[in-house]
């Protein structure tokens, strides 16, 4: 039996109650519904705020991250006062401040194969508010295996996507994107960049689809992939089909539990730099000041040089390093750097594989150089 609405709730949701497609019965369905939002970043901000405002009775938030000042350009559920606090607690406070008539459970933990089923057990819908592929494949496979709808969203710079994957009646995420790309083929979150309003647009669409699914109104994005381009302000809707060879929802699946392919569900381990191939900012500064010949190589994207730059560094983006390695000499020290260690660490492996032996990575990247040596340089 659906829960009744109180007088305060009738006032609060009055604009819903006068829409025939929602009405009192739809609002009672929303009050009875339970939705788990994985991720409380840019997408999760819009998703969580609008589901809370709409009166979804039981909401769960999963995120192990802390609020950072760099989040606030797009993660509008958080604010300056909550910098350094767990995102799920910051979001929970904001949601309950918006609507005290709902229940919000916060889970400050990574969403992993070891805990995903337990975290999702009490929720009928799972929404993707993440920013990484391992979590996305985990959500998809969990939803297929447990028969729950997966409301998908993703953003990149000015572009976004959204859909609903319901494997009982149509395709799942793996039907379209069968296997994740190699870890080193994916740019980092900082390198990708995200236009500030983009997660709001896609997250609001995800929340809309969840509300329509719950109340049974209109046509959903099940069997469709919505593409959005903010620069041209255009939407496209593509038909997507079930893949009979899908590994999790196809005719002969080989994924029967979240423990069958655990490598898909974990973020790649951070690149480790061998001690012999690492150089600290102050040590590099001493080498440069002594006149020692050093080949400084910036493996970041060109746009990142607009934020901070090391004088006399040669720009060779990581994606071009293998093809342009001939520009570097084997006879003098090569020092690679990026924003932090990750991309420079991958560049180290490329050069070592090409026969370079005198290669080092600037520990902590250009941000470490800025914070430890050049205090007039921006960190980002």
Q: What do you see in this structure?
A:
By secondary structure, the protein is an alpha/beta fold. The protein folds into two domains: 33-265, NAD(P)-binding Rossmann-like Domain (Rossmann fold); 275-372, Rhodanese-like domain (Oxidized Rhodanese, domain 1). The protein is 33% helix and 17% strand. It has helices at residues 7-12, 14-17, 23-32, 42-54, 87-98, 116-120, 133-146, 173-176, 189-192, 198-215, 281-290, 321-324, 342-353, 365-372; strands at residues 34-38, 58-62, 103-107, 125-128, 150-156, 159-165, 224-229, 234-239, 278-279, 294-298, 314-315, 333-337, 359-362. It has an eight-stranded mixed β-sheet, with helices on both faces. Strands 9-13-12-10-11 form a five-stranded parallel β-sheet. Helix 5 links the parallel strand 2 and strand 3 (103-107). Helix 4 packs parallel to helix 5 (87-98) and helix 4 runs parallel beside helix 10. The longest helix has 18 residues, at 198-215. It is elongated.
């Amino acid at each position: 039996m659906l829960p009744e609405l109180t007088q305060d709730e009738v006032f609060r949701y009055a604009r819903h109650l006068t829409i025939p497609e929602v009405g009192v019965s739809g609002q009672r369905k929303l009050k009875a519904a339970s939705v788990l939002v994985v991720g409380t970043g840019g997408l999760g901000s819009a998703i969580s705020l609008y589901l809370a405002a709409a009166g979804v009775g039981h909401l769960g938030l999963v995120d192990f991250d802390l609020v950072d000042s760099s989040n606030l350009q797009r993660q509008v559920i958080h604010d300056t006062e909550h910098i350094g606090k767990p995102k799920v607690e910051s979001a929970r406070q904001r949601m309950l401040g918006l609507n005290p008539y709902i229940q919000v459970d916060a889970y400050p933990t990574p969403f992993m194969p070891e805990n995903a089923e337990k975290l999702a057990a009490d929720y009928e819908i799972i929404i993707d508010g993440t920013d990484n592929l391992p979590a996305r494949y985990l959500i998809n496979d969990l939803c297929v295996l447990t028969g729950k709808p997966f409301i998908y969203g993703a953003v990149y710079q000015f572009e976004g996507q959204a859909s609903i994957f319901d494997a009982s009646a149509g395709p799942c995420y793996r039907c379209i994107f069968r296997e994740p790309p190699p870890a080193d083929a994916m740019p980092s979150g900082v390198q990708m960049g995200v236009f500030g309003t983009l997660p709001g647009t896609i997250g609001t669409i995800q929340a809309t689809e969840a509300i329509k699914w719950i109340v049974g109104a209109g046509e959903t994005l099940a069997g469709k992939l919505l593409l959005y381009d903010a620069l041209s302000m255009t939407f496209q809707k593509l038909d997507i089909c079930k893949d009979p060879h899908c590994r999790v929802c196809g005719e002969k699946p080989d994924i029967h539990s979240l423990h069958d392919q655990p490598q898909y569900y974990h973020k790649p381990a951070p690149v480790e730099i061998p001690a012999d191939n690492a150089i600290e900012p102050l040590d590099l500064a001493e080498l440069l000041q002594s006149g020692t010949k050093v080949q400084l190589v910036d493996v970041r994207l060109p746009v990142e040089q607009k934020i901070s730059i090391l004088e006399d560094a040669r720009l060779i983006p990581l994606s071009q390093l293998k093809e342009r390695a001939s520009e570097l000499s084997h006879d003098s020290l090569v020092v690679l750097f990026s924003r932090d260690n990750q991309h420079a660490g991958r560049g180290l492996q490329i050069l070592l594989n090409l026969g370079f032996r005198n290669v080092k990575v600037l520990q902590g990247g250009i941000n470490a150089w800025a914070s430890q040596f050049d205090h007039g340089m921006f960190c980002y």
